[in-house]
Amino acid sequence: MLAVALLSGAGMISLLSSQREMLYKQISWFGISILVALILAVLDLRSFFSHKAILRWLYLFICGLLGFAYLFAPSIKGNRSWIFLGSFQIQPSEFAKVILILILAYFFSKAHIGIGRWSIVLKSFLYFVPLGLLIAALPDMGSAMVLFCLWFGLVLVSGMPIKKIIISFLIGLVALVVVWVFILKPYQKDRVMGAIFPERDPMGVNYHVIQSKIAIGSGGIFGKGFGQGTQIQLGFLPEAQTDFIFAAIAEEGGFLAILLLVGSFGWMVIRILKIGIMIDGNIYKYICLGTAILFIVQFVFNIGSNIGLIPVIGVTLPFVSYGGSSLLANMLLIGIIQSAWIRRS
């Protein structure tokens, strides 16, 4: 929990520097999320995970929320990802990541012995498909890609034979071609091409990444100081509280702040994996593995887009980026893992 506090604190300090109105909302969400995590940690959830029907109903409920968002949510920058509840916004795609981890953990804990069979792999993939398609339709390709990586990562750690991993990888390449030709919109293709050719269209598709690189590079070792980042304070760095908060922290906090952030993140992931090794029950082990995979994938996608190695796909930095739904969803997983750790043999 200390690593989580450090990561969340880094994000809040960045918000204090640039967007104090957002900071107050984030503090509210942090309080709610901590309370939920503590309640889950106190509860004995072993009986909950023994009922597949409950997980299925939760899965269908999240699918319903995504469908509702697609049909009725207001379009914000061409995206229907948020459901408004008064002054709060709920992003169902963040909770889709949680339910996919839980239901795949249950599935693989029961079927991991037969993971070498294509039928088992296909059944696990079918849990991803409805969530992935609904999220992609919003459109939120970043979250859809995170879900796919989450599924694929769990398949890999479940003991799938190397031969079938290679075949699956080749099938994935074919699927990428299909996605490129028939699914991706022109602006999404531009982002991919922008990552491949970083000098292309500096005032258009690559503007965000160029400004991010300037912010990161100008921070140096010690940073420009709290509230002194020109890229942030003058508005040159877009989405400095969400997609590009890593660059915002690097500009004002410098390399030392980034070192602390990356170290805290690594400590958290290693701790989750150690818990997964030490606790009893395959389902909890898979939950720990799925949570670690989820955090690592989002970490790589977010920072990769900040430094121009990956197209900008709108993936948050876990516990750091502004966003109540993301914070609450991540804390749900932490609370479940803490519950398992408390009740270890």
Explained architecture:
By secondary structure, the protein is an all-alpha fold. It has 13 helices and 2 strands, in the order αααββαααααααααα. It has helices at residues 2-18, 20-42, 52-72, 92-111, 118-137, 141-157, 162-183, 186-196, 207-219, 230-233, 245-278, 282-306, 324-342, and strands spanning 83-85, 88-90. Helix content is 71%, strand content 2%. A hairpin with a 2-residue loop joins strand 1 and strand 2. 42% of the residues are buried. The protein has one domain (2-342). It has a two-stranded antiparallel sheet.
Radius of gyration, taken over Cα atoms and rounded to an integer in Å: 20 Å
Number of strands: 2
Order of helices and strands: HHHEEHHHHHHHHHH
Q: Give the overall silhouette.
A: globular
> How many structural domains?
1
Residue fraction in strands? under 5%
Write the layout of secondary structure elements.
Blueprint: H1 2-18, H2 20-42, H3 52-72, E1 83-85, E2 88-90, H4 92-111, H5 118-137, H6 141-157, H7 162-183, H8 186-196, H9 207-219, H10 230-233, H11 245-278, H12 282-306, H13 324-342
Antiparallel strand pairs: 1-2
Helix pairs in contact: 1-2, 1-11, 2-13, 3-4, 3-5, 4-5, 4-6, 4-12, 4-13, 5-6, 6-12, 9-11, 11-12, 12-13
Q: What's a quick, concise take on this entry?
A:
The chain is mainly α and 345 residues long.
What tags apply to this protein structure?
single chain, globular, 2% strand, 345 residues, two-stranded antiparallel sheet, mainly alpha
